[in-house]
Amino acid sequence: MSEIINKRSEILFVYDIENANPNGDPINENRPRFDTEDSTVLVTDVRLKRTIRDYWFEYKGFNGTNGSDVFVRETSYNEGDKQYIKDGKRRAKDFDEQVENILNTCIDIRTFGGVIPLSNASITRIGPVQFQMGRSLNKTEIIEEQGTGAFASGEKKAQATFRTEFKVPYAVIGFNGIINEKSAQYSKMTNNDVELLKEGIWEGTKALISRSKFGQTPLLLLVIEYNEPFYIGSLRQRIKLDSGEINEMQIRNVKDYKIDVSELLAELKANKGKIASIEFKADSRVQLLCDGQLISKISKDEL
Fold this sequence. Notes:
four-stranded mixed β-sheet; 6 helices; 19 strands
C-alpha cells in the first residue's frame, strides 16, 4: 500500500488555449473570466480541480467500482418512475456516512479535501493540494462569435436558432500549486495519489475536448519536492513570455515566444539545499530561455 506523503511539494503548471473559452463565468454570459486592468485571462482553481476529477473518473477507474471513487461528482438515482441527479456534495450516504471509508475510497477528498455532510453534522477535511487562481502570462482579449443552428421541427420544417460564443484567441495560462504534507496526515493523501494528481493535471488538460475547451494543451509541469516544511512561492510570477518583436496581443502559437525562466532558476539555485528533487515535463515545442540562452530542461543537477 502506498505511504502517506511526508514531504512538501510545490507545483507550476502552464498550458495554452487557442480560440476557446478557458473558464466561463456563468453570471456574465459565460464570458471568459477576465482581469480588465491588465487584459489577462483568469481561471479558477475549481476549474482545474474539475479537470483532474473528470480525468480520474473517466480514465483511471475512480467511478465507484473496485473500491475507488470521486466524491464530488453528479450521480443519478431513481425514486419511483423518475430519475434524479444528486450532486457530489451530498453523497455521504453512499458510503454509510463513515468518514474513514470516504477517505479510503475517494481520491479527491484525500487530495483536495472537502466538506462531508452527515446526517447530524458535517466534517471538514482541509485538502493537501491547493491551487491559486490561474492567470495568463500574456495579455489577450475576448472575441465574440455569432453562430446559427437549424433544428427540424417537423416534415420539411426547420427552425433556426442563434447563439453567441465568447472566446480568447490565444492565452498561455499558469497555475501555482502546493502539496502540504501536514494536511496529508489527516486526509491520508498517498504518494500514489501524488502521481495520479500529476497525471491528471497533464493528461486531464489534453482530455478536455468539449466544444468550449478543445484547443487546450499542457506546455510545462514543474514539481519541486522539499526537504523541509518550506516552499518558494509565486512560481508563475517568476516566469514570463519573451515574444521578441511580436506584440503579446498578437501571439497565436507556442512558436511565437519563449518562456523566460531566468528569475525562477535564480530562486531555485538560491534554495538548492532545501530541494529534495525536481520533476520537469514539457511539450516538445516549448523553448525555455535563461539569461539569454536556450535551455532544454529544469533539473536539480543543473542548478
